[in-house]
C-alpha cells in the first residue's frame, strides 16, 4: 500500500546520496521524477520528502526545487534547529533550565527557536504547528496541563511518524513514547514531608496543583511519607488548585479554606516555592507567624526561596543541569534515531533554612 511506500523512498534516497557522493547543496530529484522512479502517487512522494526534510536529509526551497542537506560525508548545508516549547520563560526556575539547554545547543552549533505556552494547550498546539511548518530538526517540550488528557496527541503522533526526535522536560503526558528529563517529583514530596515529620510535626497539610503531573507526583510522595508514619486520613489535609484558580487569585478565592487548613496544621508542604512565598505573605497579612504558628516547606529552591521575608526550607530542583541533560539527550537522538532513549530522573535534595520549626527540639528544651 502507498501508506508504507514512502518509507522505502526515504531509505532509497539515503543510499542514493551516499552512492553518488552527493554533497550539501546539490540538487535532488523533483516530485515528478520520484513518482516516475518509484511508480507511486504524488501524495506518497510528498510524505517521503516531508520526512526527509524533517530528518535533515534534504531542504526544499520554494521556487527553486529540492536540494541535498546532508552530504555523503555527513556535512550539513546549514545548522540544525531545535524547537523549545516551555510553559514559561522569564521567571522562577525557567531561565536556569533554558540557559542549560542553550549552553549545550550553542556548544554543538545548533540553533534554538523558543516559544512559550503559559500552560495553555491551545498555545502548545500553535507552537508545535508553527515549528513543524518551519522545519525544525527536533523538539524539547514542557507539556501544558500534563495531568489532563492530551488534546494535542495528533500533533505528537505526526512528530513520531515523521521520525523527529522529541524530549519532554519536567513532565510528560501519560503513555507518551517520548523520553522525559525531570526531577523525581514523588521523592521531592516525600523529602519535604519527611522533614516536617523529623522536626516533630504531626498535623501536616499540603497544597498541590491538580492539572500538572508534578502536582500528582508530589502528592504521591506526601501521602507515602504520612502513611508510613501512621497518619490517619492524610488526604483530608490536602487542598488542590488548578491553573485557572491560580490566575484568579488563589489566596483570595480560597481564603476561608486556607485559614481553616492553617488553623488545624503545624506544618504545610507547598506544591512549589512560588506558592510557598505567596503563602508566607498571606500568613503575614493574617497575623500567622512563620515558623512559630505554621512551618512551611516549598519545592524547587527557586531564586526567591533564600531571599524572601522568611528564608524558605525547600527541595532543590536541578534546573540548569536538567536543561543540559535534556539538550544532550535530544542531540544523541538526532545523531542516532534508533537509539534507545530512556527517561532521566534527578534525585532531589533538601535545602534547610528557617521556615520550619523543630517542635521536637523545642519540646525537649521546655
Question: What's a quick, concise take on this entry?
Answer:
The protein has 366 residues and is an alpha/beta fold. The chain has helices spanning 2-20, 31-38, 42-54, 94-107, 121-134, 153-161, 185-198, 213-228, 243-253, 255-263, 273-285, 320-335, 359-365; strands at residues 58-61, 65-68, 81-86, 111-116, 138-141, 166-169, 180-183, 204-209, 238-241, 267-270, 295-297, 314-316, 344-346, 349-351. Helix 11 (273-285) links the parallel strand 10 and strand 11.
CATH architecture tag of the largest domain: 3-Layer(aba) Sandwich
| CATH homologous superfamily grouping of the largest domain | Response regulator
- What class, by secondary structure content? alpha/beta
Q: Based on CA inertia axes, which overall geometry fits?
A: elongated
- CATH class of the largest domain, named Alpha Beta
Word description of this protein:
This protein has about 375 residues and is α/β, with parallel strands linked by helices. It folds into 3 domains: about 1-70, Orthogonal Bundle (Arc Repressor Mutant, subunit A); about 80-180 and about 320-345, 3-Layer(aba) Sandwich (Rossmann fold); about 185-315 and about 350-365, Response regulator (Rossmann fold). The chain has helices at about 1-20, 30-40, 40-55, 95-105, 120-135, 155-160, 185-200, 215-230, 245-255, 255-265, 275-285, 320-335, 360-365, and strands at about 60, 65-70, 80-85, 110-115, 140, 165-170, 180-185, 205-210, 240, 265-270, 295, 315, 345, 350. Strand 1 and strand 2 (about 65-70) form a beta hairpin. The model has no long low-confidence stretch (mean pLDDT about 90).
